[in-house]
Amino acid sequence: MGFPARRLRRLRQSEAIRGLVRENKLSAGNFILPLFAVPGSKIRREIASLPGNYHLSIDCLVEEAIAARDLGIPAVLLFGVPETKDEQASGAYAQHGIVQHAVRALKNTVPEILVITDVCPCEYTLNGHCGIICNGYLDNDASLDLITKITLSHAEAGSDMVAPASMLDGQIQAMRQVLDSHGYQNLPIMAYSAKFASKLYDPFFKEGTHSTLSFGDKRTHQMDFSNSDEAMREIALDIEEGADIVMVKPALFYLDVVYRAKQEFKMPLAVYDVSGEYAMIDAAARLGRLDRDAIMMEALTCMKRAGADIIITYFAKRAAELLHRNERSGDTHSGRDVLEEEWAI
Ligand code: PBG
Ligand code: ZN
User: Does a cis peptide bond (omega within 30 degrees of 0) precede residue 250?
Assistant: First the structure.
């Protein structure tokens, strides 16, 4: 049966009817908000390339986590920006390191929010690399030792979930072993399984964690962005090694990989909507070329449509706010016409 009997536009006539048949809806309950902890007190310094995101001393970090919780965001992903760095990345596993402190403070004051910790040495090494460098090459097995030390220190501080980010071979297995042998059998691992060597991380390094590489690049461990069969192999291995949640990162340019991952593995799947994706939308909005809120909602919804269950995004608070407001006004979808003054350019 074709036209004129079949008219697909019948179900698009009003927001009410569109809402009724909508296949994918965003929810604040699927967002994870990345947070950056810095030493000191009363520090709330905006990150230039990620407007609306801040370097937060622990007192302010706690306030931010409470704000996130009040918007229905269940989890934060913690990064530390330490005062000093060294070759061994000792700050990454120090008992009184910045992240370990932040985890304790969050669990003491806002226990209901999930605290996920990023497990990667690169914020703590002098050269910005994700492990131990031997003769200019990232040494896999020497770096695994470091990863397990960081993992254990996060667990001991009270982390609710660990998220290994360095794309080393065998790291999920190594982490699972160290966690299980120390009584942390119930601590989940969210693996950055298919993490591509992308220039979209630049804002994160430059202004987010001050961990720009002093030499080389990350292409010997992060994935070549030309490949997606290989991404499936990475994800399969992480699942075999014990990952509870798998991830594709970045998100927007990689939605084909997200789609494949969901279809092939049917595992809880996260995407990381990275700093460069945020910066692109922010810059275009500032130039008046794109409508910030509308583009944000479109981008996040398309990640979900591709198969993401969980979205790690610097937009989490703003998107959650819009979802709540739109819910009240009956329009649960668009980012339009709502509170434009708050994010005025
Ligand atoms: C690893 C890590 C990185 C990002 C998150 N965790 C960078 C990397 O290791 O290459 C990038 C996130 C972003 O760009 O928003 N510590
Ligand atoms: Zn790293």
Answer: yes
Cβ 164 vs Cβ 192: under 8 Å: yes
Of the candidates 294, 307, 303, the residue with the CA atom closest to the CA atom of residue 333: 294
CB-ligand 1 contact for 130 (6 Å cutoff) = yes
Q: Is the CB of 260 under 6 A from ligand 1?
A: no
Quick: pLDDT tens for 30-43: 999 999 999 999 99
In a domain, 344, yes or no: no
Contact assessment for residue 116 and residue 159, using Cβ atoms and an 8 Å cutoff? yes
CA–CA distance, 86 with 125 (Å, rounded to integer): 5
Write the CB contacts of 225 (distance below 8 Å, at least 6 apart in sequence): 196, 197, 198, 253, 254
Read off the pTM: 0.95
Residue at 15 is within a domain: no
In a domain, 7, yes or no: no
Residue nearest to atom 5 of ligand 1 (CA): 165
Residue 161 domain-assigned (yes or no): yes
Task: Check if 201 has its Cβ closer than 6 Å to any atom of ligand 1.
Answer: yes
User: Which CATH number is 234's domain given?
Assistant: 3.20.20.70
The length of the chain is: 345
Atom index in ligand 1 nearest the CA of residue 197 equals 10
Task: Please name which of 253, 244, 236, 248 lies closest in space to residue 308, comparing C-alpha atoms.
Answer: 248
Distance, CA of 31 to CA of 73 (rounded, Å): 6
User: Six-digit token pair at 201?
Assistant: 């991380």
Domain count, the chain: 1
Tokens 């991380």 -> residue:
201
- The residues carrying an active-site annotation are 195, 249
pLDDT tens, 44-98? 999 999 999 999 999 999 999 999 999 999 999 999 999 999 989 999 999 999 9
Structural domain harbouring 73: 24-317
